[in-house]
Amino acid sequence: MADLMVGGALLSGFVNALFDRMASQEVLDFFRGRKLVPKLLKKLETVLLSANVLLNDAEEKQLRDPNVKKWLGELKEVLYEADHVMDKINTEALRVKLEKGESGSEACKCLNFIPTSFSLFDNALKSELEEILGTLKDLLNQTEFLGLKKVEQKRPSYVLDAPLIEEDDCYGRKDDKEAILELLLCDDVGGHKISVIPIVGMGGIGKTTLAQLVYNDSKVQEHFELKAWVTVSDDFDILRITKIIFERVTSRKCEVEDLFQLQNELKKALTGKKFLFVHDDVWNEKYELWDLLKSSFESGAHGSKIIVTTRSKNVALKMGNVRTYDLQLLSDDDGWQLFAKHVFNNIGCSIPSDLQEIGKQIVKKCKGLPLAVKSMAGLLRSMVNPEEWRRILRSDIWELQGQGTHSTNIVPALWLSYQFLPPHLKRCFTYFSIFPKDYEFNESEKENMIFIWMAEGLLKPQEGRRLEDVGEEYLNAFILRSFFQCRCDRPILFMHDLMHDLAMHVSGEFCCINNGSRNDLNKLTAQTHHLSYRKDFKDIIEYDGLSKAKYLRSLLALPFEYNYESYGLIITPKALHKLLLRARCLRALSLSESSITELPKTIGRLKHLRYLNVSGTKIEEIPGSVCMLYNLQTLLLSHCKRLTQLPVDISKLINLRHLNIRGTYLKEMPPQMYKMTSLQTLSDFVLSENNGFRIKELGELRQLHGSLCISGLENVKDVGDVLESNLKEKKHLSELILRWMGESDDSVNERVVLNALQPHVNLKGLEIYGYGGTILPSWVGHPSYCNLVRVSLEEFANCCLLPSFKHLGSLKVLRFEGMVGFLTIQDEICCASSAEPFQLLEEIALWEMNTWKWSFISGSKPEGDIFPCLKKIDLFGCKELNVGLPTGCFPSLKEVTITGCDEMVSVFPSISDIDAAYPSLETLLIYPCLRVESFSEKGLWPPSLKALAIIGCNLLMANRMNWNLQALSSLVTLYFDGYSHGGYEDVVDSFPEKGLLPTTLRDLRIIGFKNLKALNGKGFQHLTSFEKLSLHNCDQLQCLPIECLPHTLKSLDISECALLSPRCQRGIGEHWPNIQHIPLIRIDCKEI
User: Fold this and answer.
1) What is the CA radius of gyration of the chain?
2) Where are the alpha helices (DSSP H) in 855-933?
3) Where would I find the Disease resistance protein winged helix domain in this sequence (predicted)?
4) Comparing C-alpha atoms, which of 833, 972, 952 is closest to residue 898?
5) For residues 234 and 283, what is the distance between their CA atoms, to the nearest angstrom?
6) DSSP strand E in 966-1074: where?
7) Coil, strand or helix: which one is 674?
8) Which of 436, 727, 663, 409 is nearest to 560 (CA)?
9) Residue 750: in which H helix or E strand, if any?
């Protein structure tokens, strides 16, 4: 780990990587017996050594001297060229090796042969190397005039790493939060209907953090009906911003591209509703753009608010209509608390006095900037040598102040944190500049980021470790140094905009982001080596726009993760063909979810390509030329739904480490998969009708990690083949999916096969689908699988006995579906644990389960077991189940959904203390259950219930006066739906009956009441918070209450009520005088 901590210049990382490649055994063997190229490589090494000693000085001086920055850029360009030459050598050596008939992983180790006729190749290299040497010598001749000299890089002392991510404490912001909350919760701020509250301060001062604090506050959650957060950044794209807000407030994808139409739709969605919008990081100073954007907000309810965070007071003056809130710097005391939290928490309360004194001086140097304080803490937390702290305190970099435009305004503390990164981490850091600001890195995005680093050769191999693990260590090093922040509500990493500015600064023109405009392509230059674009880019990409970047090494569609949406980036076949012909330097290419339908054969010319992602496209085949990409490490084809086969020679890709074919419709695997021994992840292995024996090929793939799905198991005939797959020894697999796709004609064989498929005990996820055996093997549910987090068993036609999963101590999700033959649970299990069962279980789903009781999770206690973490129960089609919920204590249960359980007569078990059993239950949804008559025998309710939906339960509705809804002091949403389920025929005139609804109700929806003719006004009079009434598909409904509806009502929605709708028309309907006070009225989806 020590190597991760040593500072050094960015380009030193490039130089060191070149040295490693020149000295590699592959290069030495390839040029054995020849002198010309090795002699030039030796000269190159000497010149690079001369340049390398100057890099520390140059990197520090580039902030003050633009000539030095330009010099570094030119040097970086030459190093890229040298790296490309070395990659040519390695690629040619590997090609010759394979064409001589040798294959397998041995080809990746050493090339023990002496080539005899390489004159053409050597001559081409000679020309390129001589040009590189000439350029390098010219650059070295300039160093004296630039004043560059050798600067020693000292090695700091370090202790063991602290935890990677800690909960962020916001010191010194309590008063700020209360002040903003006061503005938000007051409905009359300055007499404005919609108040715009600007929060202004310098970058890194905590504007976004403060906005997040109030945005997520519980009082704010209750006060506003709609909320939306938009990161505006420097691109004030009104269409994009409006789309984001519309999608947030309506929870649906927006396909509208016309701004006028979209603004009208948003206006309708906001009508009469109190909203809170946050416009974060605004740079636009043109009032006319803001005026156009806000025009669609005016329909919102009085008291709506907009928070604007910006670094510019001009922006605040243009957008705000209340007093600007100037966010101040932290006091030294608050800064010290923040600093100490992140530096000394791994030491405890005892802080060394010498470090405390220096630390307080460093905090003063940060001048109250929270991000700078936290960044410095990330740098110093693992140093214990006071002299190192003093050296950082004395560094003249502190005196550098950012000058010029926004893009070059680097905070000294952030620059210093960057300076102390080791060279190989600096190379990785510059790559973050290809991601947009506020880009969210979930697990999938982080994994792909590491794949890209690997493709670019940024990961330094370490003996005995996978490159992927090295990449994860690098990423964790950035997290430790606070280069990333963590979302408080979910495990997502993001980079603060100042850190992103720093990455953009150090990468210069080498990295470029296309933010959705064709004009961005005009920014490309010959120095552009890395280009990313957003998948929602709606323009057509022509090659002319890319042609300037003739040394392009990566072209990436973002986000990496498949989003189940058709973005449809249009890249013409001609443009793609030219790109593949001319972009000879490409190492990473992602066209994920683009419009391409064919991958040209010319893809095989990209000899240096290591990462290829065409997932989510409509391609029907992968050309055989892909098999000539000997350097390819990652091939992502997930959700290519028209893809049915892979190239027959794919086993030639001996360097392939990751193959993702999840969501494709492959008929079978290509031959000789067993040769692909470098594979680290293989998402799926498909067995065809006559090739079930090929399952044994998995035995040779010993390094598999992550998720593996084996489908077509009905085609396996010989259990010996299964045993050779050796799943039990694949300790790095985290998820195993086993799928039988046809009807079983040999249940005994299927049990034998499943028994032989026993995985390693490290497994975290297990899914078995279509199993035709009558019982499961003993390993399924065995306590030794204590790491299992998720278990899903689906479509077991014959299984009559299931194991108990009570003793799987890590289990969080348990799903049974289609157990039509199920009879009972295996109560006894070997090595049974004495621990309480299901202590971590969060979700249980039972679909089409042939069971009449909850024996599979109910324990021996008469009062039931305690399920401390269970949050969700989902029941569907459990025809024999008598009582919806089991006996027990469920302190965390929030949501219950019950559908089609026709024998169920009661939802809750017969218990006296229902409050204690379900203290957190908020949502109860009951879909057609023919025999259910009551929620509980004693008429008791969980007091925390907020939302209740009853759909097609006729007997339950007939018993509604015994529900005792008045006991529900938290219920705000009530949903009745009889449409297509008998229409609740017994409800005729008087609904809702007086006293039926709880006083707390805000939202009532009445749907499909077949014979309902009038609403009972007395049923509404006691509602003090009633805001929304929806009436749908009530054919006989004619009358609203003679008495006026509650004055608190804000929304009335009527649709497909043929007799009522005419009576409610604006100005002419006989009910209009009784409803005209309601701010928002819709009739048949049209606002009146």
Assistant:
1) 33
2) 914-917
3) 434-503
4) 952
5) 5
6) 973-977, 1003-1007, 1028-1032, 1051-1055
7) helix
8) 436
9) helix 747-756
Q: What whole-number distance in Å separates Cα of residue 448 and Cα of residue 635?
A: 11
CA dist., res. 230 & res. 242, Å (int): 9
Print the SS3 string covering 410-477: CCHHHHHHHHCCCHHHHHHHHHHHHCCCCCCECHHHHHHHHHHHHHCCCCCCCCCCCHHHHHHHHHHH
Whether the upstream peptide bond of residue 919 has omega within 30° of 0, thus cis, is no
C-alpha closest to that of 689 among 659, 708, 713: 713
As a whole number of angstroms, the distance between CA 100 and CA 427 comes to 36
Query: Is the separation of the CB atoms in 176 and 210 below 8 Å?
Result: yes
Spatial distance between the Cα atoms of 722 and 446, rounded to a whole number of angstroms: 34
Which parts of 100-142 fold into alpha helices (H)? 119-141
Residues 608 and 423: their CA atoms lie apart, in Å, by 24
What is the residue whose two structure tokens read 């293989």? 682
The alpha carbon of 795 is separated from its chain's Cα centroid by a whole number of angstroms, namely: 30
Where do we find the tokens 């290519």?
Answer: 640
- Of the candidates 244, 209, 233, the one whose C-alpha atom is nearest the C-alpha of residue 283 is 233
pLDDT score at 167: 34
Contacts made by residues 687-694, CB under 8 angstroms, sequence distance 24+: 687/711, 687/712, 687/713, 687/715, 687/716, 688/712, 688/715, 689/715, 690/715, 691/715, 692/716, 692/717, 692/718, 692/721, 693/717, 693/718, 693/721, 694/669, 694/721
Cβ-in-10-Å burial (0-12, 13-18, 19+) of 350 comes to exposed
State the Cα–Cα distance between residues 386 and 392, nearest whole angstrom.
Answer: 10
Q: Bridge partners of 1083?
A: 1054, 1086
C-beta atoms surrounding 133 within 10 Å = 18
Question: Residue 81 in 3-state DSSP?
Answer: helix
Give the pair of three-digit tokens for residue 606.
């990209």
- CA–CA dist 366, 44 (Å, integer): 42
DSSP string, 14-55: HHHHHHHHHTSHHHHHHTTT--HHHHHHHHHHHHHHHHHTTH
Structural element, H or E, at residue 176: helix 174-185
The structure's pTM equals 0.77
In a 3-state reduction of DSSP, which class is residue 846? strand
Rounded CA-CA distance 712/323 in Å is 67
Span between the terminal Cα atoms of the chain, in Å: 67
Distance CA 991, CA 1004 (A): 12
- pLDDT computed for residue 401 by the predictor: 41
**CA-based nearest residue to 68, from 149, 185, 181:** 149
Report the pLDDT value the prediction gives residue 849, as an integer from 0 to 100. 83
pLDDT along the chain (1088 residues), means of 10: 45 84 84 83 89 83 83 89 90 82 47 51 88 92 87 44 40 90 88 92 83 91 93 87 93 89 93 94 89 93 94 86 89 88 66 83 82 78 79 57 37 67 89 90 94 94 93 88 71 81 84 71 80 78 72 91 68 80 90 90 94 95 95 97 96 96 96 96 96 96 97 95 96 97 83 97 97 93 95 92 88 92 64 70 91 62 75 92 87 95 89 87 94 84 94 89 90 90 70 92 94 90 94 92 84 95 93 90 93
Give backbone dihedrals phi and psi of 275, rounded to 5 degrees, phi first: -125, 160
